[in-house]
């Protein structure tokens, strides 16, 4: 019996049970039957939960890139691996076959080696969404270097913190990057970031925009001449199952960003497995995930999960609004995309555009839609379902984290019946539990609590780079014996999970615990509202009051604002109950967001509570320009 593919709901329950009762057998079989190894593992897992030392597939030897590329060559060498859609509609898309990808990765790997990069060295990659980004990641993995991708929208300060923390020996960047109508001068930003850092020996520069850049003698090298002369084949490095594959930084509510360390075998197996089942992958699919590769979603599903399955994956350099808001629909139509995986923030922004941007595009190739990054509000869910999926594509609302490596709670397309705003059921192998304030497990259904996982899973991050103590403190100290996700969730009458937001975002109003996501859901039903974020602030009578920051759709801005406020509170009362009514409402130009589209509620809370000194790490903010306006007009 094979456990790799789940065919129907009954089989899902069967596999789930098996994964809990006999995890060694379950994961062992998946690992054995679907991947190539140089040497088999000794134990499927080995945990020391005193030290939080977690190992999967001990002493196994493999290379993830051999699994992503080499083993596909005999069967699907000419199949498209990557489709690159450039920012500029006048530039031709590139289709890169598995054969070509092999050569490009091998050449890049040889360049890295020629510049002194060895197994275990850290390489930071600060590139726009161009094929070289994916190729550089794979080249690192091929030679055993640890990649750490830094999103190309980050500031010099954010790069500095990351490069310094991981002690990178090399930075790979480009002269510049195209993003919508803008050009960003990446090389200049890198120069600024690393001027005082001694660990960086080489900066490798890809040509993309032809910006003029300064090349520092002895440190900076253009990629092209080195790449030109590099050998077209490369023997992949033999890696241990637990050798680090990459470090990816994620920001916490306090302190510097955390360098989450993912290792080789467990990450490989679970990203491949979840890609295949969540998106009901079939051989001829064209998979498009709109995330940036600098985000965990890009790592696991644009790149590794997709290539491990021999899939065709689309990489888009630009933004949804350029040259106009029909760009996403253009791309789906042009490349005949079958799976479209995006974020609620993108859906909400496209929803505010005229429907005519969608009509005229043939979206009939679509089979499956996906959402990730934030709770998807009900209105966005329905719009996605009705107008993009035309009510015939299942929506997989996938819940997971940088730390979890792969999707942990999600419907399986064409297997799990969906329910708007619910991430539904845990993946096989994932033992989700809800905990109360006294740290006891809450059993039964129709309950709410802190979402924890009580058994390790293969793709979980193993540590925080250089700070194992912080790893233990952050994830394993709140609920002893369990991994704490930081999110709250409710479990409905059939056992489906709905994520209610970060538990930091729970507000206690007059003694009632209020998750902000369902209130935002109600607010977003208002026809004039584009987006909303609700946070708590100190209130003399209620303990905490609710403060709503709201952006209006263009047509909403002409309405009488006092009326809109009243209607919003009426909506909350009827959908949620009067306890959720907002005490303060502020209409704002934009909500502060992270690069992956998450609303920075922490920052809004600081503004609402008048504590402007508690902003914390804001290096991941994509639109700092909106903050001052919000502060100036705060109520
Ligand atoms: C993959 C990713 C993780 C946090 C997570 C949660 C929120 C992600 C979600 C979701 C509700 C979903 N989140 N997916 N909330 N429903 N489908 O986003 O990783 O950037 O580390 O963020 O995002 O709060 O804890 P990351």
From TrEMBL:
GO terms for molecular function: acetate-CoA ligase activity; AMP binding; ATP binding. Its EC number is 6.2.1.1. Keywords: Acetylation, ATP-binding, Ligase, Nucleotide-binding. Gene3D superfamilies: 3.30.300.30, N-terminal domain of ligase-like. Residues 12-68 form the Acetyl-coenzyme A synthetase N-terminal domain. It comes from the Bacteria. Residues 70-462 form the AMP-dependent synthetase/ligase domain. CDD domains: ACS. Residues 519-598 form the AMP-binding enzyme C-terminal domain. One of its GO terms (biological process) is acetyl-CoA biosynthetic process from acetate. Belongs to the ATP-dependent AMP-binding enzyme family. This is Acetate--CoA ligase.
């Amino acid at each position: 019996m094979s456990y790799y593919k789940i065919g129907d709901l009954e089989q899902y329950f069967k596999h789930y049970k098996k994964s809990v009762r006999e995890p060694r057998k379950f994961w062992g079989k998946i690992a054995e039957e679907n991947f190539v190894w140089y040497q088999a593992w000794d134990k499927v897992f080995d945990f020391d939960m005193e030290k939080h030392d977690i190992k999967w597939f001990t002493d196994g030897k493999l290379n993830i890139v051999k699994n992503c590329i080499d083993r596909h060559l005999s069967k699907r060498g000419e199949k498209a691996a990557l489709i690159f859609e450039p920012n500029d509609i006048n530039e031709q898309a590139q289709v890169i076959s598995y054969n070509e990808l092999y050569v490009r990765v091998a050449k890049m790997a040889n360049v890295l080696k020629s510049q002194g990069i060895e197994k275990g060295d850290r390489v930071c990659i600060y590139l726009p969404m161009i094929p070289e980004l994916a190729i550089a990641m794979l080249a690192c993995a091929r030679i055993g270097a640890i990649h750490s991708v830094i999103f190309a929208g980050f500031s010099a300060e954010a790069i500095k913190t990351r490069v310094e923390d991981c002690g990178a020996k090399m930075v790979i960047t480009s002269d510049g990057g195209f993003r919508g109508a803008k050009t960003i001068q990446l090389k200049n930003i890198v120069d600024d970031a690393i001027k005082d850092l001694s660990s960086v020996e080489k900066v490798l520069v890809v040509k993309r925009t032809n910006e003029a850049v300064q090349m520092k003698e002895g440190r900076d090298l253009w990629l092209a001449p080195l790449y030109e002369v590099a050998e077209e084949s490369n023997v992949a490095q033999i890696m241990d199952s637990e050798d680090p594959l990459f470090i990816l930084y994620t920001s916490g509510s306090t302190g510097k960003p955390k360098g989450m360390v993912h290792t080789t075998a467990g990450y490989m197996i679970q990203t491949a497995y979840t890609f295949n089942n969540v998106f009901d992958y079939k051989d001829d699919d064209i998979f498009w995930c709109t995330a940036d590769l600098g985000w965990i979603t890009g790592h696991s599903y644009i790149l590794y999960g997709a290539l491990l399955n021999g899939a065709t994956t689309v990489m888009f350099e630009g933004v949804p609004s350029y040259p106009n808001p029909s760009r996403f629909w253009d791309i789906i139509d042009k490349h005949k995309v079958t799976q479209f995986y995006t974020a609620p923030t993108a859906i909400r922004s496209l929803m505010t555009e005229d429907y005519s941007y969608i009509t005229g595009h043939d979206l009939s190739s679509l089979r499956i839609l996906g959402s990730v990054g934030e709770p998807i509000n009900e209105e966005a869910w329905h719009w996605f379902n009705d107008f993009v999926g035309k009510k015939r594509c299942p929506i997989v609302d996938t819940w997971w984290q940088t730390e979890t490596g792969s999707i942990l709670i999600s419907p399986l397309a064409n297997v799990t019946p969906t329910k708007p705003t619910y991430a539904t059921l845990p993946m096989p192998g994932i033992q989700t539990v809800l905990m109360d304030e006294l740290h006891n497990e809450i059993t039964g259904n129709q309950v709410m609590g802190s979402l924890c996982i009580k058994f390790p899973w293969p793709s979980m991050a193993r540590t925080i780079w250089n700070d194992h103590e912080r790893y233990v403190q952050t994830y394993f100290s709140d609920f002893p014996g369990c991994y704490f996700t930081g999110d709250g969730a409710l479990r409905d009458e059939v056992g489906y999970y709905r994520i209610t937001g970060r538990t930091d975002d729970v507000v206690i109003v007059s003694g009632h615990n209020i998750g902000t996501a369902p209130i935002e859901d109600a607010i977003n039903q208002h026809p004039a509202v584009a987006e909303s974020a609700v946070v708590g602030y100190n209130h003399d009578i209620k303990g905490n009051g609710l403060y709503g920051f709201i952006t209006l759709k263009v047509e909403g801005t002409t309405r009488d604002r006092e009326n809109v406020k009243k209607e919003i509170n009426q909506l909350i009362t009827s959908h949620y109950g009067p306890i959720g009514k907002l005490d303060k409402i502020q209409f704002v130009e934009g909500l502060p967001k992270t690069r992956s589209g998450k609303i920075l509620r922490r920052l809004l809370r600081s503004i609402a509570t008048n504590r402007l000194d508690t902003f914390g790490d804001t290096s991941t903010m994509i639109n700092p320009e909106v903050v001052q306006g919000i502060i100036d007009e705060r109520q």
